[in-house]
């Protein structure tokens, strides 16, 4: 029996594969490689010393997905596959609704047809939009502010409806994980975040400035109501996040197999850092300067966002252990040893 990992060649998926293998699970990875490289899966094999079954497969390809479920014994699904760029979702909303919603619908239909009950879904803190207060608990209001965030909330709602009203006597056991800001890389430096274009997110941008690929960072606003005026976020090491998936899967598999359930968890550290603190921590960890300039706020950004992670601590027995300097040191190891990501011409 295998765990089906959709989007397993991507940033969080590849790191989670390492943790799942370490916990003794057998994997089946599917990915259409629209935002990743098959090399990431080879590197997972290199790190773990185990072979991983990988299929290049698009969730929009229903017959291929069905054949995948027919040919493999799947005990549970961890569903990372999706498009995730906030700005692109504003300019191409149909692409996002089509890929993320329809891809998930196809996956759920295949699970139902083949009698697979257990699902872990990658949601996001973006569903909270601009929170009324911090730290953010799972009970906080949800009001995403962009099409990407709305795809996440729609899928959460679909899964919640499904578990409330089991179709055709199918039992669904679902965990929704709302990630805060994943950063860092596997400590080996073999896998990490490999944006296909100029990075949208802070840490990969800083890393590319430090390695000399980009000239300077633009800090989006220093007039927020935060201690130093720059945006504050809950950055979480991707290995801690990956371990959260293993804990969630183990917990899910211990739940009553006779009734449907859907449970949501924040995965964050509970601590917020500002953009200027992040720059400073990266310079310390890498020994490289990160030149920056303050520019106007980025549309849609909020001042402060960090998690209350207590529910995951209590129920999943999980908490983030890695500190900011480990996040930055591991990012730097990955970036400096793979300056062009998985595309490195030296290979
Ligand atoms: P990623 O882009 O590195 O990984 C997603 C993977 O899904 C990619 O490998 C991509 O090729 C694949 N994919 C996309 N559409 C597909 C399809 N139709 N069929 C098959 N494969 C498809 O992104 P990530 O950072 O690893 O994020 C993983 C998940 O976590 C996503 O669902 C994302 O929305 C969510 N998430 C990410 C963050 C973040 O900041 N990285 C934060 C919150 C939530
Ligand atoms: N920032 C800069 N310059 C940059 C990039 C970012 O100053 O070049 C700032 C932002 O203004 C923000 C902070 O750095 O204050 C973090 O920005 P990111 O783009 O790294 O992350 P966000 O919090 O904006 O959003 C990310 C993902 C979302 C996800 C959210 C919560 O992009 O999809 O984390 O998980 F929903």
Describe the structure concisely for a colleague.
By secondary structure, this protein is of the alpha/beta class.
Description of the structure:
The chain is of the alpha/beta class and 347 residues long. The chain has 2 domains: 2-182 and 235-267, NAD(P)-binding Rossmann-like Domain (Rossmann fold); 202-234 and 270-306 and 321-343, UDP-galactose 4-epimerase, domain 1, CATH 3.90.25. It is built from 11 helices and 14 strands. The longest helix is centred in the first third of the chain and has 21 residues, at 93-113. The chain is globular, with a radius of gyration of 19 Å. The two termini are 35 Å apart. The structure holds nicotinamide-adenine-dinucleotide and uridine-5'-diphosphate-4-deoxy-4-fluoro-alpha-D-galactose.
CATH architecture of the largest domain: 3-Layer(aba) Sandwich
**Taking strands numbered 1, 2, ... along the chain, how are they ordered across the largest sheet?**
3-2-1-4-5-6-11
Class by SSE composition: alpha/beta
- Mind telling me the CATH class of the largest domain? Alpha Beta
Give the % helix: 25-40%
Distinct small molecules bound, one entry per kind: nicotinamide-adenine-dinucleotide, uridine-5'-diphosphate-4-deoxy-4-fluoro-alpha-D-galactose
């Amino acid at each position: 029996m295998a765990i089906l990992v959709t989007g397993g060649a991507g940033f969080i998926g590849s790191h989670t594969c390492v943790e799942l293998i370490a916990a003794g699970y057998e994997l089946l990875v599917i990915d259409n490689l629209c935002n990743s490289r098959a090399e990431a899966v080879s590197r997972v094999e290199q790190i773990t010393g185990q072979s991983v079954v990988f299929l290049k497969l698009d969730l929009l390809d229903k017959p291929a997905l069905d054949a995948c479920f027919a040919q493999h014994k799947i005990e549970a699904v961890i569903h990372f596959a999706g498009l995730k760029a906030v700005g692109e979702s504003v300019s191409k909303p149909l692409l996002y609704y089509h890929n993320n919603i329809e891809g998930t619908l196809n996956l759920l239909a295949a699970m139902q047809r083949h009698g697979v009950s257990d699902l872990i879904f990658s949601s996001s803190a973006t569903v909270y939009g601009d929170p009324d207060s911090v730290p953010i608990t799972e009970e906080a209001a949800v009001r995403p502010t962009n099409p990407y965030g709305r795809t996440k909330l729609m899928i959460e709602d679909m899964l919640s409806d499904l578990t409330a009203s089991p179709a055709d006597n199918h039992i669904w056991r679902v965990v929704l994980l709302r990630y805060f800001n994943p950063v860092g890389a596997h400590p080996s430096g073999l896998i990490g975040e490999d944006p296909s274009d100029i990075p949208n997110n802070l840490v990969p941008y800083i890393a590319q400035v430090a390695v000399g690929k980009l000239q300077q960072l633009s800090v989006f606003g220093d007039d927020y109501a935060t201690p130093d005026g720059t945006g504050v976020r809950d950055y979480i090491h991707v290995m801690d996040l990956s371990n959260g998936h293993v804990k969630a899967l183990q917990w899910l598999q211990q739940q009553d197999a006779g009734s449907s359930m859907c449970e949501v968890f924040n995965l964050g550290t509970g601590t917020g850092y500002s953009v200027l603190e992040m720059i400073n921590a990266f310079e310390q960890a890498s020994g490289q300067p990160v030149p920056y300039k303050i520019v106007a706020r980025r549309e849609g950004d909020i001042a402060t966002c960090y998690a209350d992670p207590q529910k995951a601590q209590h129920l999943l027995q999980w908490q983030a252990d890695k500190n900011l300097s480990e996040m930055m040191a591991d990012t730097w190891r990955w970036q400096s040893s793979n300056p062009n990501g998985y595309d490195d011409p030296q290979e």
